[in-house]
Amino acid sequence: MAWLLLGLAGLVEIVWAQTIKPTQNFTRPLPTLLCLTLMAVAVYLLSRSMQTLPVGTAYAVFTGIGALGAIALGVIVHKDPLTVGRTVALGLILAGVVMARVTNPE
Protein backbone atom coordinates (compact mmCIF):
# COMPACT_ATOMS: atom_id res chain seq x y z
CA MET A 1 0.00 0.00 0.00
CA ALA A 2 2.86 2.40 0.80
CA TRP A 3 4.29 2.02 -2.70
CA LEU A 4 0.88 2.70 -4.23
CA LEU A 5 0.53 5.87 -2.15
CA LEU A 6 4.03 6.90 -3.15
CA GLY A 7 3.26 6.35 -6.84
CA LEU A 8 0.08 8.42 -6.50
CA ALA A 9 2.05 11.14 -4.71
CA GLY A 10 4.51 11.22 -7.60
CA LEU A 11 1.71 11.48 -10.15
CA VAL A 12 0.09 14.33 -8.23
CA GLU A 13 3.49 16.03 -8.08
CA ILE A 14 3.74 15.86 -11.88
CA VAL A 15 0.39 17.61 -12.23
CA TRP A 16 1.26 20.05 -9.45
CA ALA A 17 4.48 21.06 -11.21
CA GLN A 18 2.48 21.95 -14.30
CA THR A 19 0.21 24.26 -12.28
CA ILE A 20 2.98 26.48 -10.91
CA LYS A 21 3.59 28.62 -14.00
CA PRO A 22 -0.09 29.54 -14.58
CA THR A 23 -0.19 31.12 -11.11
CA GLN A 24 1.99 33.91 -12.55
CA ASN A 25 4.07 34.20 -9.40
CA PHE A 26 1.04 33.33 -7.26
CA THR A 27 -0.82 36.46 -8.35
CA ARG A 28 -3.80 34.63 -9.90
CA PRO A 29 -6.17 33.33 -7.20
CA LEU A 30 -7.74 30.28 -8.86
CA PRO A 31 -4.55 28.83 -10.37
CA THR A 32 -2.79 29.52 -7.07
CA LEU A 33 -5.51 27.68 -5.14
CA LEU A 34 -5.26 24.71 -7.50
CA CYS A 35 -1.46 24.70 -7.23
CA LEU A 36 -1.44 24.83 -3.43
CA THR A 37 -4.14 22.17 -3.18
CA LEU A 38 -2.21 19.77 -5.43
CA MET A 39 0.97 20.47 -3.48
CA ALA A 40 -0.78 19.63 -0.21
CA VAL A 41 -2.25 16.41 -1.66
CA ALA A 42 1.16 15.33 -2.99
CA VAL A 43 2.89 15.96 0.34
CA TYR A 44 0.08 14.26 2.26
CA LEU A 45 0.34 11.13 0.12
CA LEU A 46 4.13 11.21 0.45
CA SER A 47 3.86 11.48 4.24
CA ARG A 48 1.46 8.53 4.34
CA SER A 49 3.91 6.39 2.36
CA MET A 50 6.67 7.39 4.80
CA GLN A 51 4.78 5.69 7.62
CA THR A 52 6.10 2.42 6.18
CA LEU A 53 8.90 3.29 3.76
CA PRO A 54 12.24 4.82 4.74
CA VAL A 55 12.18 8.60 4.42
CA GLY A 56 15.16 8.76 2.07
CA THR A 57 13.81 6.10 -0.26
CA ALA A 58 10.32 7.59 -0.34
CA TYR A 59 11.54 11.12 -0.99
CA ALA A 60 14.02 10.06 -3.67
CA VAL A 61 11.37 8.06 -5.51
CA PHE A 62 8.82 10.87 -5.12
CA THR A 63 11.13 13.48 -6.60
CA GLY A 64 12.32 11.06 -9.28
CA ILE A 65 8.77 10.41 -10.46
CA GLY A 66 8.09 14.15 -10.41
CA ALA A 67 11.22 14.94 -12.39
CA LEU A 68 10.54 12.25 -14.99
CA GLY A 69 6.96 13.38 -15.45
CA ALA A 70 7.74 17.08 -15.53
CA ILE A 71 10.43 16.62 -18.18
CA ALA A 72 8.25 14.25 -20.21
CA LEU A 73 5.33 16.69 -20.17
CA GLY A 74 7.69 19.52 -21.05
CA VAL A 75 8.86 17.61 -24.11
CA ILE A 76 5.38 16.44 -25.15
CA VAL A 77 3.23 19.46 -24.29
CA HIS A 78 5.61 22.40 -24.36
CA LYS A 79 7.92 21.09 -27.10
CA ASP A 80 11.01 21.32 -24.87
CA PRO A 81 14.08 19.88 -26.61
CA LEU A 82 14.95 16.25 -25.92
CA THR A 83 18.70 16.04 -26.28
CA VAL A 84 20.92 13.00 -25.85
CA GLY A 85 22.08 14.36 -22.51
CA ARG A 86 18.52 14.81 -21.23
CA THR A 87 17.60 11.34 -22.44
CA VAL A 88 20.54 9.83 -20.56
CA ALA A 89 19.63 11.85 -17.46
CA LEU A 90 16.03 10.60 -17.65
CA GLY A 91 17.26 7.04 -17.99
CA LEU A 92 19.47 7.42 -14.93
CA ILE A 93 16.61 8.88 -12.89
CA LEU A 94 14.33 6.04 -13.98
CA ALA A 95 17.01 3.48 -13.14
CA GLY A 96 17.41 5.06 -9.70
CA VAL A 97 13.67 4.95 -9.01
CA VAL A 98 13.46 1.30 -10.11
CA MET A 99 16.54 0.35 -8.11
CA ALA A 100 15.16 2.07 -5.00
CA ARG A 101 12.00 0.02 -5.38
CA VAL A 102 13.51 -3.39 -6.05
CA THR A 103 16.20 -3.11 -3.37
CA ASN A 104 13.82 -1.93 -0.66
CA PRO A 105 13.39 -4.66 1.97
CA GLU A 106 9.63 -4.01 2.30
Could you tell me how far the N terminus lies from the C terminus, measured between alpha carbons in angstroms? 11 Å
Categorize the overall geometry.
Answer: flat
| Overall tally of structural domains | 1
Task: Give me the Rg, rounded.
Answer: 15 Å
Helix content: over 70%
* Number of discrete helical segments: 4
| Structural class assignment | mainly alpha
Mean pLDDT across residues: 93
Q: Pick out the low-confidence regions.
A: none
Describe the biggest sheet? Answer: none
SS elements, strand count: 0
Order of helices and strands: HHHH
Taken as a percent bin, the fraction of beta residues is under 5%
Q: Which keywords apply here?
A:
106 residues; 4 helices; mainly alpha
Quick overview:
The chain is mainly α and 106 residues long. It has four helices and no strands.
Element layout with pairings:
Layout: H1 2-20, H2 29-49, H3 55-76, H4 84-102
